[in-house]
Here is the input.
Amino acid sequence: MTLLLNFSHPLTEAHLAAIRSLTGAEAVQVIALNSQVDVQQPLAPQATALADAARLSSEAWQTAPLLIVPPALNFSAAVLLAELHGRMGYFPPIVRLRPAAGSTPPRFEVAEIINLQEVRVGARRRR
Here is the structure.
């Protein structure tokens, strides 16, 4: 079972179906996490608290199949990804959502799964 750490808006069954289709995962367990931060305070300790809120063991961070829906706030997402890399030993794959074309009221759809570790490996070849 794939664990989906959702640091963003709630996901619908359509989102989960798209994620299962894109990843080939038979089952996805969502762990919904509040990603609110105080922008007047240092972000690194807040990112640690965000990751701690998932309540995963050290072993789970390193071995469980994880997907991340990062927070929408770019600064907190960047710091959280650094925290997760430290816990996991690699960059996690992330789910990118995008606004659905022509939707009123606005709604979001799953655009892609981005394997950040593959992005990193490719970038190292361009040094």
Summary: The first strand starts at residue 2 and ends at 6. Residues 15 and 102 are 18 Å apart (CA to CA). The chain has one domain: 2-125.
